[in-house]
Amino acid sequence: MDAEIFYVLVGAVVVAAVARWRGWPAPLLVTVAALAASFLPFVPDLEIDGHVLLNLVLPPLLYSAALDVSFVGFKRSLPQIRRLGIWLVLLTALAVGLVAWWIFPSLTLPGALLLGAIVAPPDAVSAAAIGRRLGLPRRIMTVLSGESLINDATSLTLYRVFALILTGATVTVLNGVLQFLLAVGVGVAVGLVFGIVLHQLRMRISDPVVIGTFGLLAPFGAYAIAEHLLGSGVLAVVAMGLYVGFNAPRTDYTTRQQETPLWLSADLLLESFVFAYIGLQFPRVLNDLGDESVGRILLLSAAVLVVVLIVRPLYIYPANAWANLLDRRRLARMDRGIESGEFDRRREQSRRWRDRSTDDLRTRIVRDRMAGLQLTWKDNAVISWAGMRGVVTLATALAAADLATLDADASHAIVVVAFIVTVGTLLLQGLTLPLLIRRLGIASEVDHADDEKALAEVRAKSREAGKAYLAAQRVAWEAKHGSVDLSVFDAFTTRMTRVEKDTDQAQEVEDAVARPSYDDLVALSKGWLQVRRSILLAERDAGNLDEEVMREMMTAMDAEELALDTRGAARLPGRA
């Protein structure tokens, strides 16, 4: 089995590499290649316990995804994410359960609802890959990514509840709600504890290899401990990833440079294996189709596939329209409050709002609390069709097949339906989603224009802060060196305020004049980089700069600092 897993991993990575090289969606190509390979006699039939698959694959994938999600954007889009990640999962599970019970009564109602919980959560890996390649606007990507981070927690909690009912336990609606609240509370608490501890380690340990190793282990620990305490391991990993990712710019640049390629490689390896494993399950699914029940199971599979495809848009459009109506009413009440002076009176009473203008506060409230108004019907069309299922659906189905209270027909039906729904949505929606995006003409030009405007403002603030920092440093140098000629420092200051990205500046100045020393100039360069980073963080925290743009600029600054350190390490001994 070990050798077989290795061969599958190598083959899956090779196919994914070809897909990346050609610009194709890797998850879809890997799944199709694995489906075709499953017919070959020498290809192994992998059987992995569903619980093992969840515990080994889900935590690192969730953590890596949470690291990349903009916390500011996630918070701003939380109403939409909550509607999709909680309420849509509940509705889908209920609809699928009722249809499955009607078509396949031997499943029983709890078993049918268990099946609904299994197929309810979409996996946004392939949708995100397609969206990034086609340049989907950030508002859509944030919603899709945020949904994928929390819908697994909802579905796995439902899975627990219905599994308990199948074992004969009495579970009321109130008990189910309490279990969900417990899972959320414990999961988020465990994740924040792990996130805080890991962040403190990242701030205090300068060895990026050690920190990277801790980062690889932490998702498994958070997931396992949260599950042991009856919490949601999914939410624990997500909370930890959001906290660590949000605070990553405050750590040493070497840590960021180490973890980025580390997690990109881990994602490629794990995602390739997961989608290859999905495709290779085809022979097992054929074996599960008995002669007597094959017709009913195929009918059930087709019906469930149709339900998961149509429930999503039928829910998204009315829910979004209702949310927009409520948002407009809140906006109208706010405007009436501004006209009557009530808004200004409340602003004066608030320590947090006192120093901000009414127009600024109104803009922030509209942007942060009424973000649903930003989604058009075209955006919702893309979100409605980005419902591909993935690893959680297949893994929980394999785990459910081992439940002792399910008979053989019910177990086979759950596995077959989960497989057909997973592969069907991956191929049907995954292959047509790019066409839909192109037909609707959705692109991220508005994001680019907003980013350029925000960048211009940040650069202006950065220049002013840099000038103030350099002026203060010049005074300190004059006090320290006395009669030392500081004309080189003046030239250096002029160069730094004129060209922001010049990693050769310290070396050039050091070659021209012996004093100030090279180490002093490098320290000045690093201090100026730190000032620019603090400006970026302040603008990000204030909501004026998107987190993705901030990370791009931070990466460029990290490269500048690496160049300074590399040049300093390469200097000849004894050089002034």
Task: Write structural notes for this entry.
By secondary structure, this protein is mainly α. The chain has 2 domains: 390 residues, Na+/H+ antiporter like fold (Up-down Bundle), CATH 1.20.1530.20; 123 residues, no CATH class. It has 24 helices and no strands. The radius of gyration is 27 Å and the shape is globular.
Task: Give the helix/strand layout.
Layout: H1 2-22, H2 26-37, H3 50-68, H4 71-76, H5 78-103, H6 108-119, H7 125-134, H8 138-166, H9 173-204, H10 208-228, H11 233-247, H12 253-280, H13 282-288, H14 294-340, H15 342-349, H16 358-369, H17 377-385, H18 391-400, H19 408-440, H20 445-481, H21 487-498, H22 505-512, H23 518-541, H24 547-570
Summary of the model, kept short:
This protein has helices at residues 2-22, 26-37, 50-68, 71-76, 78-103, 108-119, 125-134, 138-166, 173-204, 208-228, 233-247, 253-280, 282-288, 294-340, 342-349, 358-369, 377-385, 391-400, 408-440, 445-481, 487-498, 505-512, 518-541, 547-570. It is built from 24 helices and no strands.
